[in-house]
Amino acid sequence: MTIFDILLIVLGIGALFAGFRQGIITALGTAAGFIVGWILGRLLSPFVESLSTGTDVMDNPGVLMLLASMPLVLSVLFAFAGSGIGAWIKHNMDSDLGQGIDAIGGTITAGVVYVLVVWLAAGFIRTTPLVEPNRWVADSTVIAAIDRTIPYSSQNALGGLAKGLSASGFPQVFSGQPEQIRGVGEPDESMVDVGRSVDDSVVKITTTATSCATGSEGSGFVYEDGLVATNAHVVAGSTELAVQVGGKGRPYRAEVVEFDAEADVAVLRVAGLEAPALDFGSGLGPGDDSVVVGFPANGPYTISPARVREKINARGLDIYDSQSVVREVYALRGIVREGNSGGPLIDADGNVVGMVFARSATDDETGYALTRAEIADELDAGAAERTPQPTGQCTN
Asked: Which residues form a coiled coil (predicted)?
């Protein structure tokens, strides 16, 4: 149990005590306000998104995070308003409820509302690139228990704008094969220095896709002069692509010269790209240090230390969820978010040992990277190809 868990428990006890004192009518007002706020937030999210589409607003991660939190914020605000209305109703009515029933009902209702608030807040944090809060959520025994109790994704409960923080969806790592999370020590924070040393070879990729619902954003790395490796799901369906070294400065136009929907690997050829190529390492074993670098949630260059849980052959699906594939992958203990897709997995010597492509569906502190061996053929094919290749269908 972490300090964050203790804080959640203390706040929960406070909520139960408040419900006990206020009684069931006030607590029901709080619950009703919470539900109304959540429904209103869900209804407004698509409307706000449609108004913002095509403007610079949706390119600002801070604004996008604020908009994505709308259901959570409105739920809390309306809960406070509902509490006040409930207290007023209780004050102005003659209640036949006994004190005991009133207090017990208030306690139960307040507890349910508190659990829902924590659940939604955790879901919002999971959609952000905030590393430390994500670790608090991932390590929380309390939140894990809530997730097991509520059979629905809290990220989905926040609505479409929360999904908008996720620029490109991950493919399914496992299909017909259970995911097993192997225990391993915490990542080494000193690996941040290694991540800083490679930032001039890591690029942010943004796409325009006229036939897709939205464009996408992801990460990539320079592996030969003028060649960038990334995931196929980052560029799927794209009509125009641009890369920025370190996520800032001049955008370079790029062309897809290799696209493999099964392996989830793509290669971009970028004319005039001024960025050094990274070297490849020999590989990693269980417990080895590594670092994930890239641009989660269309944000700035982000460094996330990681540690290898194991190397496995994972039976999953291609980027369109239509074909069964087997990939050699590293299971990592670390924070991986949408937007990290296509970024390099770096070893302690600053060499590329894999390509980040997915995160766990069940554990917030587990991500997955394709091994060097898994991506080697596609990278070689891309280096030999000069003609632009089709980018397949959209994934969104």
From this structure: none
